[in-house]
Write a structure and sequence with these properties.
single chain, alpha+beta, five-stranded antiparallel sheet, three-stranded mixed sheet
Length: about 200
Protein backbone atom coordinates (compact mmCIF):
# COMPACT_ATOMS: atom_id res chain seq x y z
CA UNK A 1 0.00 0.00 0.00
CA UNK A 2 1.36 3.40 -0.97
CA UNK A 3 0.53 6.32 1.28
CA UNK A 4 1.27 10.04 1.35
CA UNK A 5 1.87 12.40 4.24
CA UNK A 6 -0.97 13.66 6.36
CA UNK A 7 -2.14 17.21 5.93
CA UNK A 8 -4.43 19.26 8.12
CA UNK A 9 -7.77 20.80 7.30
CA UNK A 10 -9.25 23.33 9.68
CA UNK A 11 -13.00 23.70 10.09
CA UNK A 12 -14.36 26.90 11.55
CA UNK A 13 -18.11 27.23 11.38
CA UNK A 14 -17.54 25.06 8.32
CA UNK A 15 -17.27 28.30 6.34
CA UNK A 16 -13.75 29.55 7.00
CA UNK A 17 -10.96 30.14 4.53
CA UNK A 18 -7.57 28.44 4.70
CA UNK A 19 -5.64 31.64 4.18
CA UNK A 20 -6.27 35.36 4.12
CA UNK A 21 -6.42 35.60 0.34
CA UNK A 22 -8.54 32.76 -1.03
CA UNK A 23 -11.79 31.32 0.19
CA UNK A 24 -11.85 27.52 0.18
CA UNK A 25 -15.16 25.69 0.13
CA UNK A 26 -15.31 22.40 2.03
CA UNK A 27 -16.70 19.26 0.39
CA UNK A 28 -17.28 16.42 2.88
CA UNK A 29 -18.15 12.99 1.54
CA UNK A 30 -19.30 9.79 3.15
CA UNK A 31 -18.01 6.76 1.24
CA UNK A 32 -17.09 3.10 1.64
CA UNK A 33 -14.71 0.74 -0.16
CA UNK A 34 -17.47 -1.86 -0.57
CA UNK A 35 -20.13 0.54 -1.88
CA UNK A 36 -20.82 -0.02 -5.58
CA UNK A 37 -22.34 3.46 -6.24
CA UNK A 38 -19.26 5.00 -4.58
CA UNK A 39 -16.99 3.35 -7.15
CA UNK A 40 -18.86 5.00 -10.02
CA UNK A 41 -19.48 8.35 -8.30
CA UNK A 42 -16.18 9.04 -6.55
CA UNK A 43 -14.17 9.53 -9.79
CA UNK A 44 -16.60 12.29 -10.78
CA UNK A 45 -16.07 14.13 -7.50
CA UNK A 46 -12.30 13.61 -7.48
CA UNK A 47 -11.90 14.84 -11.05
CA UNK A 48 -13.96 17.91 -10.25
CA UNK A 49 -11.97 18.62 -7.07
CA UNK A 50 -8.68 18.31 -8.93
CA UNK A 51 -9.90 20.95 -11.37
CA UNK A 52 -10.89 23.31 -8.52
CA UNK A 53 -7.97 23.03 -6.11
CA UNK A 54 -7.73 26.78 -5.63
CA UNK A 55 -11.33 27.00 -4.46
CA UNK A 56 -12.30 23.67 -2.90
CA UNK A 57 -10.94 21.24 -0.33
CA UNK A 58 -12.29 17.84 0.69
CA UNK A 59 -12.50 15.29 3.47
CA UNK A 60 -13.66 11.73 2.79
CA UNK A 61 -15.17 9.92 5.78
CA UNK A 62 -15.22 6.15 5.39
CA UNK A 63 -18.30 4.51 6.84
CA UNK A 64 -18.59 1.07 8.44
CA UNK A 65 -21.27 0.05 5.95
CA UNK A 66 -22.33 -1.38 3.56
CA UNK A 67 -19.22 -3.59 3.73
CA UNK A 68 -15.61 -3.87 4.82
CA UNK A 69 -13.44 -0.76 4.61
CA UNK A 70 -9.93 -0.71 6.13
CA UNK A 71 -9.88 3.09 6.19
CA UNK A 72 -12.87 3.08 8.52
CA UNK A 73 -10.98 0.60 10.70
CA UNK A 74 -8.07 3.06 11.08
CA UNK A 75 -10.23 5.28 13.32
CA UNK A 76 -13.70 3.80 13.75
CA UNK A 77 -14.81 5.98 16.66
CA UNK A 78 -14.09 9.37 15.12
CA UNK A 79 -15.14 8.26 11.64
CA UNK A 80 -18.52 7.26 13.04
CA UNK A 81 -18.80 10.55 14.93
CA UNK A 82 -18.19 12.57 11.77
CA UNK A 83 -20.57 10.42 9.71
CA UNK A 84 -23.28 10.95 12.31
CA UNK A 85 -22.55 14.67 12.73
CA UNK A 86 -22.99 15.17 8.99
CA UNK A 87 -26.27 13.20 9.01
CA UNK A 88 -24.88 10.72 6.49
CA UNK A 89 -27.25 7.76 6.30
CA UNK A 90 -26.29 6.49 2.83
CA UNK A 91 -23.12 6.43 0.76
CA UNK A 92 -22.00 8.19 -1.28
CA UNK A 93 -23.21 11.42 0.28
CA UNK A 94 -21.60 14.81 -0.31
CA UNK A 95 -22.25 17.88 1.85
CA UNK A 96 -20.78 21.34 1.24
CA UNK A 97 -19.66 23.77 3.95
CA UNK A 98 -21.96 22.00 6.39
CA UNK A 99 -24.89 23.85 4.85
CA UNK A 100 -25.64 22.28 1.45
CA UNK A 101 -26.68 18.68 2.05
CA UNK A 102 -26.64 15.49 0.01
CA UNK A 103 -25.67 16.55 -3.51
CA UNK A 104 -27.04 13.85 -5.77
CA UNK A 105 -26.36 12.70 -8.39
CA UNK A 106 -22.68 13.58 -8.55
CA UNK A 107 -22.27 15.88 -11.54
CA UNK A 108 -19.92 18.73 -12.36
CA UNK A 109 -22.91 21.06 -12.68
CA UNK A 110 -24.16 20.18 -9.20
CA UNK A 111 -20.71 20.72 -7.70
CA UNK A 112 -20.30 24.00 -9.61
CA UNK A 113 -23.62 25.27 -8.28
CA UNK A 114 -22.73 24.41 -4.70
CA UNK A 115 -19.28 25.99 -5.04
CA UNK A 116 -20.59 29.22 -6.51
CA UNK A 117 -23.30 29.48 -3.85
CA UNK A 118 -20.73 29.31 -1.08
CA UNK A 119 -18.11 31.49 -2.80
CA UNK A 120 -20.68 34.29 -2.81
CA UNK A 121 -20.61 34.35 1.02
CA UNK A 122 -17.83 36.38 2.67
CA UNK A 123 -16.15 34.27 5.37
CA UNK A 124 -16.14 35.80 8.86
CA UNK A 125 -12.59 34.64 9.59
CA UNK A 126 -9.29 33.84 7.91
CA UNK A 127 -7.21 30.85 8.89
CA UNK A 128 -3.57 30.20 8.11
CA UNK A 129 -1.99 26.80 8.71
CA UNK A 130 1.77 26.21 8.64
CA UNK A 131 2.87 22.56 8.87
CA UNK A 132 6.33 21.53 10.12
CA UNK A 133 7.65 17.99 9.78
CA UNK A 134 9.31 16.91 13.01
CA UNK A 135 11.22 13.82 14.10
CA UNK A 136 9.63 10.50 13.25
CA UNK A 137 6.32 10.48 11.47
CA UNK A 138 4.86 13.56 13.15
CA UNK A 139 3.74 16.96 11.90
CA UNK A 140 3.46 20.11 13.99
CA UNK A 141 0.91 22.67 12.84
CA UNK A 142 0.79 26.36 13.70
CA UNK A 143 -2.73 27.71 13.27
CA UNK A 144 -3.47 31.44 13.08
CA UNK A 145 -7.09 32.57 13.27
CA UNK A 146 -8.06 36.10 12.31
CA UNK A 147 -11.54 37.28 13.30
CA UNK A 148 -12.26 40.22 11.01
CA UNK A 149 -15.18 41.60 13.02
CA UNK A 150 -17.03 40.57 16.14
CA UNK A 151 -19.04 37.43 15.51
CA UNK A 152 -22.75 37.26 16.31
CA UNK A 153 -23.94 35.49 19.43
CA UNK A 154 -23.58 31.75 19.15
CA UNK A 155 -21.37 28.75 19.80
CA UNK A 156 -18.35 28.62 17.51
CA UNK A 157 -15.95 25.71 17.26
CA UNK A 158 -12.55 25.21 15.65
CA UNK A 159 -12.08 21.65 14.38
CA UNK A 160 -8.73 20.37 13.16
CA UNK A 161 -8.82 17.34 10.85
CA UNK A 162 -5.86 15.28 9.67
CA UNK A 163 -6.41 13.78 6.24
CA UNK A 164 -4.26 11.47 4.16
CA UNK A 165 -4.05 12.91 0.68
CA UNK A 166 -3.71 9.63 -1.18
CA UNK A 167 -3.88 5.94 -0.31
CA UNK A 168 -3.27 3.38 -3.06
CA UNK A 169 -3.79 -0.35 -2.52
CA UNK A 170 -2.29 -2.94 -4.91
CA UNK A 171 -5.63 -4.76 -4.91
CA UNK A 172 -9.10 -3.52 -3.93
CA UNK A 173 -9.45 -3.56 -0.12
CA UNK A 174 -13.22 -3.75 -0.37
CA UNK A 175 -15.68 -5.26 -2.80
CA UNK A 176 -16.34 -2.31 -5.14
CA UNK A 177 -13.08 -2.47 -7.13
CA UNK A 178 -11.61 0.86 -5.97
CA UNK A 179 -7.89 0.89 -5.18
CA UNK A 180 -7.19 4.65 -4.98
CA UNK A 181 -8.60 6.83 -2.22
CA UNK A 182 -8.18 10.58 -1.79
CA UNK A 183 -8.20 12.92 1.24
CA UNK A 184 -9.05 10.15 3.66
CA UNK A 185 -10.06 11.30 7.15
CA UNK A 186 -7.60 10.00 9.74
CA UNK A 187 -8.06 11.93 12.96
CA UNK A 188 -9.66 14.99 14.55
CA UNK A 189 -7.67 17.09 17.03
CA UNK A 190 -8.17 17.24 19.94
CA UNK A 191 -11.48 15.46 19.20
CA UNK A 192 -14.43 15.73 16.81
CA UNK A 193 -16.16 18.22 19.11
CA UNK A 194 -13.48 20.84 18.55
CA UNK A 195 -12.41 23.73 20.77
CA UNK A 196 -14.18 26.97 21.57
CA UNK A 197 -13.20 29.89 19.35
CA UNK A 198 -12.85 33.56 20.19
CA UNK A 199 -15.61 35.77 18.86
CA UNK A 200 -14.07 39.23 19.15
CA UNK A 201 -12.00 40.94 16.47
CA UNK A 202 -8.35 40.00 16.61
CA UNK A 203 -5.60 37.56 15.69
CA UNK A 204 -5.23 34.33 17.64
CA UNK A 205 -2.65 31.53 17.54
Amino acid sequence: MRKTLLSFIILFLLIGSLNSQTRRVLFEEGTNASCAPCASSNPILIAWLQNHQAQAISIMYHASWPGFDPMYQLNPTQSTERIQYNNITAVPTCNVDGLIYDIWPFTSTAFDNALNTRLAVTPPVSITVVDQRIAGDSIKSQITLVVHSNLPAGTFKLRVMAVEKLIVYPTPPGSNGETTFHTVFRRAYPNTTGVACPTTTGTYN
